[in-house]
Write a structure and sequence with these properties.
With 419 residues, this protein is of the alpha/beta class. It folds into three domains: 7-178, Winged helix-like DNA-binding domain superfamily/Winged helix DNA-binding domain (Arc Repressor Mutant, subunit A); 199-274 and 382-418, D-Maltodextrin-Binding Protein, domain 2, CATH 3.40.190; 278-377, Periplasmic binding protein-like II (D-Maltodextrin-Binding Protein, domain 2, 3-Layer(aba) Sandwich), CATH 3.40.190.10. The protein is built from 16 helices and 16 strands. The strands form five sheets. It has a five-stranded mixed β-sheet, with helices on both faces. Strands 12-11-13-9-14 form a five-stranded mixed β-sheet. Helix 6 (113-125) packs across helix 8 (139-153). The longest helix has 27 residues, at 169-195. The chain is elongated.
Length: 419
Amino acid sequence: MDPHDDPLTRLRALRTVEATHEGGSAAVAAQTLHCSTSTVSRTIQQTEQALRVALFERGTRGMVCTTAGLAVVRGCAAMRAELVLSASESTPQDPRPEPLRRQVESLFRVLTVPMLRCFVACTELTNETLAARSLGLSQPAVSQQLRSLHQAYGRALMQRTQRGLRLTRDGERVLAPLKRVLNILRVLQEQMSAYRGEATGRLHLGVLPMASTSLAPRALAGLLQRMPKVVVTVSDGTYDAMARQLKTGDLDMILGPLRGELVAPELEERELFRESLIAVVRQGHALASAGRLRSLRQLRHQAWIAPLENTPAHAAFERAFRAAGAPLPQASFHANSPPLVRALLMKSDHIALMSPLQVQEDLASGALVRVPVTLHEVDRRIGITVRRAFAWPPSCVYLWEQLNALTPFERTQVGDAGT
C-alpha cells in the first residue's frame, strides 16, 4: 500500500469512522463533522478498501461497527486524550471546554502522520536536512510539514538557532502527546493486519539486566516462531531511562523486576512471578566447599559485589542484611550487568547476590556455586511494565502469552540448577 494512500496516515479518516459509530449512520456523522453525507460515505468506503477490512455492518437499522471498526474507535478515543493534552497545554490562556473541543476537532481534521513524523525527526536530529534524509523526503517537504503543524497549533513549536532546530516551550509540551499519537496509529496498523490474518508488526522491548540472559531470549524466540515477520528491537539501560521512553511511546513494555509503589502513575505493572536472590561464588572459592549453613552476618566481611543503588536488587540486598541484623558490607564493586558480575565472580574471590535466572547455566555446569547461607526478605517481583490505557498490538499480546507459558518452566529449571 502506498503510505500516502493509507487512511491511517490521516486522522480525519479515523475521526469519520468514530463519528459514524457514535451516530449510527453516515447522515448523523455528516452533521457532527459539518460535511456532506456523501463525503462521509466515500471516506469510510475508501478506508475499508485501503485497509482491506470491513469496519461497519450495514443494515436497515443503520451502521454498526465490526470488531475492526471498534478497534479504530478505541484508537480515536486514545488519540483524543493525547490531543486534548497537547492542545490544552499549548493554549493555557483559554482552558474553557468549548474552545478546547473545537481545537481538538480542528487537529483531527488537519493532522497527518507525515506531519507528526517530520516533527519528531526534527526534534531528534535538530536539522531539517538530516530529518529529510532519514524520512526519504526533500528538505522543502519537511519544512512545509513543520509549517502546517505550527499552523494547526497556532504557534511555533520549533525555532531555528545557530546550533540547529530547537523546541519552543510549546513544542516541548506537545512532543510527548504527539509521539504517543504516532504509537497509537502504529498499533492500529498492526491490529488491522491481524484482522486480515497477517501476523506482522513491530515490538520495541526494554529489557532490564535480570531478564536479559534467559527470560527475554526464551520468550522472544517463542514470539518469533509464532510471528516470524514481526520486527523486534530490544533496548537495555537503566530503568529510569527506559521508563521515560515508555511514557512517550518509544518503548512498548519493560521486562524485569517491578518497582511496586515507586512506579510512575502513568505506568502500570503486571506480575509474572516472584524470585529469591541467591548468594554465589566461583568454583574453588573457600565458601564453595563449606557444607554447613552460614548466616549472612558471618559473610559480611567477604569481598562483595553489590547491586547498583536505587534498583530492586539493591533493595533486596539491603533487606537481607537488615533482616540478619548486620550492617551493609563495604562492597568493593557495584554493578548490575550480569555478564560483568559473572566474569568477575569467576576470576576473583568475590561473592554476590544474583537472580537464579542469570546464573542457572553456570550453576548447572559448576562454574558458579551456590553458597549455603540463610537469606531472608530477598524476594522480588518480576513482570512487565506498560503505559496505562496502552492498546496492546498483537506482538505484545503474544509476547505476554509466551512469558506466562515460560514462567513455570524457568522456575523449575532454576530449582534444578540450584540443588
